[in-house]
Amino acid sequence: MARCTAPSAPRFEHHDGSVLGIGAAAPRLSWTIDDAEPGFAQTAYEVEVTRAETTRVFTVEASDQVLVPWPAEPLVSREEAAVRVRVRDAVDWSPWSATSTVEAGLLSPEDWAASFISPRTLAGLETAAPVVRGRFDLPAAAVGRLRLTAHGVYEARLNGQRVGDEVLAPGWTSYSHRLRYQTHDVTDLLREGSNELEVVLGNGWFRGRLGFLGGRGLYGDRLALLAQLEVTDAHGELHVVGTDDSWTAAESGVLADDLYDGQRTDLRRPMWGSESAADVVDVVPVDLGVLVAPDGPPVRVTQVVPAVQVLRSPSGATILDFGQVLVGWVRLRVRGLAAGAEVLVRHAEVLEDGELGVRPLRTARATDTYLVAGGGEEILEPGLTFHGFRYAEVSGAGEVRGEDAEAVVIGSDLQRTGWFSCSDPMLARFHDNVVWGLRGNTVDVPTDCPQRDERLGWTGDIQVFSPTAAFLFNVGGFLTSWLADLSADQLPDGSVPYVIPDVLHDPAPTAAAWGDAAAVVPWVLHERTGDTGILARQLPSMRAWVDRLDALAGESHLWAGGFQFGDWLDPSAPPDDPFAAKTAPDVVATAHLIRSADLVAQVASILGQDAVAGHYRVVAAAARSAFGREYVTPGGRLLSDAPTAYAMALQWDLLPTSEQRVGAQRRLADLVRASGFHINTGFVGTPLVTDALVGGGDVDVAYRLLLQTSCPSWLYPVTMGATTVWERWDSLLPDGSINPGEMTSFNHYALGAVADWLHRVVAGLAPAEPGYRRLLVEPRPCAALTSARARHLTPYGEAAVSWERDGGVFTVDVLVPVGARATVRLPGQEEQTVGHGAYRWEVPDPCRVGGHRIPRTVRDVFDDPAIWTEVVNASAAAGVATDETAVAKRLTPFLDDPAGEVVERLFAHGPRDGYDTLTKQLQPLLAP
Ligand code: BGC
């Protein structure tokens, strides 16, 4: 009698469901088990593989169910296999799973009969987007496959019907090393006899503008297409045709297209080109060895958002508001316009003084233009560009009604896997903003921002954000692909370009926290998805990076001097100097050297490479002792005396003695108090600071920082109506104007990296073993929240933790998927480890609510939210200090003094007007 339900249909590599055109000949398999009796534990599995005429069953004695090896002979090009699995425990076999199919792509360059072609005279940099066209006579198809890719971006039609639903294919990779091709099932689009394939080519990343240095055509000046149509007839015979010099080219109706500047379309011209103006094509040489199949999902339309209002700006412009900063384009319905009338759609993320705030876009024109056909109703929509926006200004379209406009959201079509909610609506909105930030910055490549003349794969940004990303969405394939680009673009000396794919071509790119993406991102993928293969694949790249740093550090073992971004965008850095962080760049640099060396050592030891592991342990140890010698006092003060320095030191174990750890812990919490619980970290410290506080028991201080709403803080943007995470803590200044810094995006995910802490620590759902095979459930409640919940589709299935504080009881519900276990730590309880299943615990609420406690020290005054608010408000009313930051600054030097002396300390220097009033008001709170 089976003791569990049938497993899910198997998944292949990091893909969801069946896969067409996979690049792995031996794709790894994973499955989940929905339900099982208590105590069920898989001890063996069977994989049934059906290919051509044969079915074979492979039995494996193992408890693994995530990314297990392909048990059969490797697939050959175009080969299809149907796969199902079943599992056994000590007692019996489960039912068989449903079947998924996997079909190999073209695994060798020799499988391609087609050649890259490029229009001969059309398609210069300033001409219309070309359409290339081929015609073939084909037998009736039992199975039809179309494989294609381009230099540029493409959209294809077969016999007048759109092929697939991908946008901006083939996406962006390090083109000279890796160019993705897509495989489509076109069986139903084919017909017996004559067939016509038409493909429009846009400039995209290959030939459009790219990077803030003003470059264009960075990968080449000719657009090109590779397309191969493969038809298997009723007798099983394969017929292959593809791009060659018999194809023709014509100009499409797209007069100009650029990812930054937008698209100009003439709707009076035939969109797919006119035959009469046909051009010939040249076969162009491209190394087919660079072709790779996709590892993750393509870019698609993922949502359509209606306009929420139509605004009239002070200058009289018509502005559509979609209510959400998003990425994609506007689809607009117009009617009754004169032929050739020009309609303009301009985009921006924010309004300033009621007009489009386009300054943050820098040189990106972000404008779509249409010359309409005229007469009846027309739909205006681009397809070879994208914009980051919430607002769109429309001109030339007559009166625009809200119902005639929608925002088409595009992005890598990643499966959503993580959710968070809580009792604080602002925090919940912040989390939504993080999700939107991720969606907008995963347009095939993990980018810094999606709107200005940048949109690059900045390594530092994804280095800090990858844990959050891996919780919220299945980014396994997406980041696997990006890491392959990172390895490909890494310099021979191990340096890692600042952006991947590399378009900046810095000759010696070594920046701490940025290049460390080489070590951190594979580690995060392993931790979150259970993928050990990615470690093996990336280890050479990881080692090369750390070797480079070790060489730069030299005999001192301190990586010092040289170019660094440092704790980028520390809020105290002036708008025009984001480098000017409080934490010295050298401290950031050596800390990262140690951390990455630690990671490489751990990875090597996971892979059984003990000698390698030993070497990097030595590298890390040498740098650690140098760090301690150079930057830490015996009592635990650090150079620099700034939260980021302490957070790194505490999180990465850079402090050798317990006295130093205790001292550093106390200093970090005091620095947070000193800033009046405002954030004081940039890209480097922000993902670490709350963990570092909680690690030392300062849970309440961490929450005060998290829930702060005045500037700078995570929630300040929410108070300003933000719908995404901003690049700067104050991209929009409190007076509603745009930060004057020339780098001010309203959609940057890096500072949203704290969401990982919301999932792991606030809700309490963390991975304790790779792929969440063991969960750590350790929610840390606080008085300011009455509930929180996180849910994640782990590789083993759905896991969830949700808690509530009510009537003195802390109730925790936990869901552990089959195949996983959970170590549960609850306040005041012994730690326990449980198997799969749904659990509820009810324990005394550990949070103190209500009741007035007399503070002992000035520090206690900071730490009691009610008393602190009173002190801040009363001080402001008395004119002693204007706001929380100012009060904190006055009192910080006296943290250990008796609480009863707060008023005295507030007036420590300067006139004593208002002293008596303030004493009268505060003394009852501060002294017995
Ligand atoms: C990007 C950042 C990036 C940085 C390098 C900026 O222009 O938008 O997010 O990491 O440059 O410091």
For the residues shown, what is the average pLDDT?
Answer: 96
Q: State the helix count.
A: 19
Ligands and ions found: beta-D-glucopyranose
Q: What is the tally of beta strands?
A: 43
The largest pleated sheet is described as: 10 strands, mixed
Gross morphology is globular
Oligomeric organization of the protein chains: single chain
Low-pLDDT stretches: none
Which structural class best describes the helix and strand composition? alpha+beta
- What would you report as the Rg, rounded to the nearest angstrom? 30 Å
Termini separation comes to 70 Å
Strand content: 25-35%
- What share of residues is helical? 10-25%
Short description:
The protein is an alpha+beta fold. It is 25% helix and 26% strand. It is globular.
What does this structure look like?
- There is one protein chain.
- This protein has 928 residues and is of the alpha+beta class.
- It has 19 helices and 43 strands.
- Strands 19, 20, 23, 24, 25, 26, 29, 30, 31 and 32 form a 10-stranded mixed sheet that branches.
- Helix 3 (459-472) packs parallel to helix 5, helix 4 (476-489) packs antiparallel against helix 5 and helix 16 runs antiparallel to helix 19.
- It is globular.
- It starts with 10 loop residues before the first strand and ends with a helix.
- The structure holds beta-D-glucopyranose.
